[in-house]
C-alpha cells in the first residue's frame, strides 16, 4: 500500500495505519464530489484514476469545502478491486489568495449560514418564506430553471411556487466569498441540487452568485 492522505503528514504503508487515519478523518463527516477526472488502464486488472474533488467537512450547520487533487491506483486482487495507491493533496493557493482570504474570512461563516437559511427555507416548501429572503425591490435574480430576469419580490414568489414542486435540496461544492464593506459580500461558486420525488432523485449541477 502507498497512501499519502490529504490531512496527515504521514506516508501510510499498511492497513492498520489506514484504519488509524480514517478513525480520525471520519470525525470530520467528509462527503466528496469529483469535479474533474481521468482514467488510465494498465492491463485487465489495474487502472489509475486521477483528478480533482471537493470534500465538504464539519457538522451539518457549519460545512466547509476542501478542494483537493487525487490519484487512486486500483488493482483487482482475488477478484475484488482494492486501492493499492492513494495520493490526495489540497490545491495550492494562487498568488495573493492568502491576502484575499484573510480579508474575507470573517464573512465566510456568514455566507455559509445565509446559504443554509436559504436551503432550509426550500425544505419547508413555503414559497412565501423563501421569497422573503429576497429584496422586495432593486432585486436582480437570474434563476436556474427559468429564462426570466426577476426584479421584484412578487415575481420571486411566482418562481418559487413552481420551483419548490421539484423538492430541491442544494449542496455547495466549491465557493468563494468577497467582502464589500461591513454589510455586503459576494458569494459565488458551484452547487448541486437534488430534485424530484424520494424514489427518483436527480442531481442538477449549477453555478451561483449571491
Automatic annotation (TrEMBL):
Q: Which residues form the signal peptide?
A: none
The beginning of the lineage is: Eukaryota, Cryptophyceae, Cryptomonadales, Cryptomonadaceae, Cryptomonas
Q: Name one GO molecular function term.
A: calcium/calmodulin-dependent protein kinase activity
Question: Per its UniProt record, what InterPro entries does this chain match?
Answer: Ca/CaM-dep_prot_kinase-assoc, NTF2-like_dom_sf
The residues covered by the Calcium/calmodulin-dependent protein kinase II association-domain domain are 3-92, 115-193
Superkingdom to which the source organism belongs: Eukaryota
Which organism is this entry from?
Cryptomonas curvata
Q: Which Pfam families match?
A: CaMKII_AD (PF08332)
Q: What is this protein called?
A: Calcium/calmodulin-dependent protein kinase II association-domain domain-containing protein
Amino acid at each position: 500500500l502507498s497512501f499519502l492522505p490529504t490531512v496527515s503528514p504521514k506516508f501510510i504503508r499498511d492497513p492498520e495505519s489506514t484504519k488509524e487515519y480514517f478513525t480520525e478523518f471520519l470525525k470530520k463527516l467528509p462527503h466528496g464530489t469529483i469535479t474533474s477526472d481521468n482514467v488510465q488502464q494498465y492491463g485487465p486488472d489495474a487502472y489509475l484514476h486521477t483528478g480533482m474533488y471537493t470534500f465538504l467537512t464539519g457538522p451539518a450547520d457549519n460545512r466547509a469545502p476542501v478542494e483537493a487533487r487525487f490519484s487512486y491506483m486500483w488493482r483487482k486482487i482475488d477478484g475484488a478491486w482494492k486501492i493499492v495507491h492513494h495520493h490526495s493533496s489540497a490545491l495550492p493557493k494562487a498568488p495573493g489568495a492568502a491576502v484575499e482570504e484573510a480579508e474575507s474570512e470573517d464573512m465566510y461563516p456568514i455566507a455559509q449560514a445565509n446559504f443554509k437559511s436559504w436551503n432550509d427555507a426550500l425544505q419547508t416548501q413555503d414559497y412565501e418564506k423563501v421569497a422573503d429572503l429576497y429584496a422586495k425591490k432593486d432585486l436582480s435574480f437570474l434563476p436556474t430553471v427559468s429564462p426570466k430576469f426577476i426584479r421584484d419580490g412578487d415575481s420571486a414568489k411566482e418562481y418559487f411556487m413552481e420551483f419548490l414542486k421539484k423538492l430541491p435540496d442544494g449542496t455547495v461544492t466549491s465557493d468563494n466569498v468577497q467582502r464589500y464593506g461591513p454589510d455586503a459580500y459576494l458569494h459565488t461558486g458551484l452547487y448541486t441540487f437534488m430534485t424530484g420525488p424520494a424514489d427518483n432523485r436527480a442531481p442538477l449541477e449549477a453555478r451561483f452568485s449571491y
